[in-house]
Structure formats: structure tokens, C-alpha cells
């Protein structure tokens, strides 16, 4: 297998699980009637996934892939790309009709090229019926016109990760649950030399998660139910003004951050509060025996869900990934057999557990995985698939919602306003103009 490397502190977890494939192999995973996908003669597969932030995720996926190869004889090559490179790589593969057989894509990217993807409704229906059904959020990203154009793979939860001792030093006995209190905390943390930091750059996960939370928590929307662009609104203005006040308390440079940057700064002790997956905590926890500084940080980390804004309820995006099969693959049966194997309990439950709370299940039957109760810091991530709000809210998912996110329209609106490159009104009007290029109602 070929693997690229990403400059990020790695975490690790060990372990394998046993499993079997299809009627040719006896095993409890196939106690129910399952689809029969006979791999094509001489089939090989190439899978392209995103680079992991929790090493146990990758290790478990590779180990389970090897079991698939042992069971079927189908060789599987796993490549990986940085988070930011996944979207353009998938778009190129779809357009030229060549590339990986299977790819892990983000959010509603599959809606940009649905006619280039294999219909996997039969497999999705089988898995959904067997394992308690798909969560609505992931299902929406993976379906179009009532058909599955991919399999919802996971939601990567986004939550507040903070240093408990510094929050107390700032005068707060507990982390604020509302946006007003959160702003006051960030001001206090800045005063004692332990600022917060949230991504205003083109981070596929962190940048989008933060921007959508800012908008939704104040009652704003990119589009209404009909798909009409309504970003130019009093609610959006209030969210921009709030973002500008928060930005004043941040560590310098967040406007250029990608997904890896807040992890690095937090684990270097430069930050007190970030919004991130559980990877920052797991990195410190796993590596604490070799680094006294990380041991101190791991002991001090707490997690909680993002504060509730004027809208009065929790509204969070959460990074979502879907496994798609491109219809140019010469081995569609082998590709379906591979995904079927990886989603069965013996493999999927193992992968979720080894991901250490980083990858939240897309099938409801896996919600009782012990990883969610093994550590209090996992609780904030345990319901990511259940509670996520799709990025196209409140309109339909499709090409327009996917393209608007891919163009970072919302992220750029906040970045331009908080850095003074544009006035709040100018930033909002620019976002409206850019979004209307994609939404033509």
C-alpha cells in the first residue's frame, strides 16, 4: 500500500477484529440475508481517503482491509490526501473518468457529480435495515432523488476543547453555555495571556464548522427552504458583529489557519480554547508518557458542545464524510463487496472504537459503542451524527449547496469582516453575490 504523510502529531491505538465476507464465509455478520457481490475476475481496488488525525482510525481501517483481501483475494491499495486536497481530487476524478475506485468525500460533495457515482441503494438499504437505520444527516448527504449515491461513513464531531485550569484562572467555575458568556470568557482568557483561537481560514472542517455555527447560532441562513439566498439579513449582521468581537480576543493568524493549525497551537500550549474533533485530546493523551508537557495538557483538557446563541438551541455542522464508488470503476462488484465488508459489525464497530471518538457512527445500531462511555471527554462527540445540521440549511442539498461550501463563501464572509478587509455590510453583500452564482432560483 502507498501512504502519504501529513505533518501533524499522530495518535495510535492497537487491535484487530475478526470478520467474514458473504455466503462463502461463515460468520455472524451475515446471519441475515445479504446482497451477493461476486468480485470480478482479477479485480483490484484503489481507495482514496483523507489523512487521519487519530492514527487508530487508519490502523484499524488498514487491518480490516487486509482481512477483506485475505477473504476474497482482491488486492486493495489505500492512498490518502490532506483534507483540503480531497475535494479537488474527487472533482477531477469525476470529470476525467479516471482515478480511485472508492473515495471518501466531504459533506455534500457527492451532489456535485451524482451522475458519476455508482448507485448503491441496494447495499445501503441492506445495511440500514440490519443496523437500525441511517442517521438523517448523513443520509441526506449520500442520497439524491431517493437513491444512495454513496454510503454515509461517519461524522467527525466538532466541539469545544479547552484547558480547564486556565478557564478557572480566568474566573469561570464552569464553561459558559451561551454565546454572551463565551465572549466574556474569551476576553478574560486574553487578559491572562491564554487566548482562544478559531479557524477563519479555508479549513475544510474547522473553518466551515466555526463559520456555520456563527451564522446559525444567531438565526442566520445562507438560503431559505426554497433555496433563495437570504444571507443578507439582520441575523447575519449580528453574527458578524459577534465574530468581530470574538476575533479581537484570538491569538494572531487564525485567518490563515487550515485544519491542522489549531491542533498544533493548542498542543504547544499557545491556546486555551479551540473548536475541534477529539483528536487534540487523544494526541495529548496517547503521547503523554513520552512528553511531560503533553501529559500536563491531557490532564487539563475538557470538552463540551459549542455555546448556544440567540437562536436558543444547539446548531452545529459537524464534519461529514461519505464513501462513494465512481461509476468508471471496472470492478463495481468488488467495490460493493469491499464496502459491505467494512460496514458489517465485526469491522465497523472495531473501526469506530479504534478511532477513539473521532469518527461517529452513521448507522444507529453502533451508537452503543463503548468508546462513547469510556472517557468523559468523548461525550461531546457521541451524538454528532444525530444532531448535525446539513450545510445547505434551510434549503435542499444539491450542486448549489456543495459548490457554495467548496468556494468557502461563508468562511470568507467572516474572515473579510473580522480582519477589516471589508465592512460587515460589504462582506455580507459579497457573500450574497457569490452564493447567487450557484443558487439560481
Detailed description of the structure:
Belongs to the bacterial solute-binding protein 1 family. Residues 1-31 form the signal peptide. By secondary structure, this protein is an alpha+beta fold. It has 2 domains: 28-157 and 318-387, 3-Layer(aba) Sandwich (D-Maltodextrin-Binding Protein, domain 2); 159-316 and 407-436, D-Maltodextrin-Binding Protein, domain 2 (3-Layer(aba) Sandwich), CATH 3.40.190.10. Helix content is 40%, strand content 11%. The protein is built from 17 helices and 10 strands. Strands 2-1-3-10-6 form a 5-stranded mixed beta sheet, with helices on both faces. It has a 3-stranded antiparallel beta sheet with strand order 8-7-9. Helix 1 (55-72) links the parallel strand 1 and strand 2. The longest helix has 18 residues, at 55-72. The chain starts with 43 loop residues before the first strand and ends in a 5-residue tail after the last helix.
